[in-house]
């Protein structure tokens, strides 16, 4: 997942010998030095702003890759849902977004890309990872379930 992270600009003073008593101040980006992205995240500087973008390693998320998810696996879902609480579909769905919505539950699950479910009991019928093959619209590096298949996370 990529996030925009703001860092304050630092001021650097430049003195030129040929201009006595003239001080020129220029703003430079603090940017990616040191790298604000934790846990192996990669940092990219924005050219004309204070923004940096963190691309997080798998199972890490958040603006600086500090939010850890425990991936429990790909599970079978049923008409009588394995995670009974459903939030409205989201075009920016991701495990982080779903887990944020499910903050008062033990587990969060993503299904068919845009669906988010919550519950307090882990599903019991594990399925092959290849059956959870929908890309998350809010994080193209992660999977968001499949047809009657749910990727389940706990934090």
From TrEMBL:
Annotated protein name in UniProt: WSC domain-containing protein
UniProt organism field: Dreissena polymorpha (Zebra mussel)
Annotated ranges, domain EGF-like: 28-66
WSC domain residues: 68-155
Stored SMART domains: WSC (SM00321)
Residue ranges of the TM segments: none
Localization terms from the record: Membrane
Signal peptide: 1-30
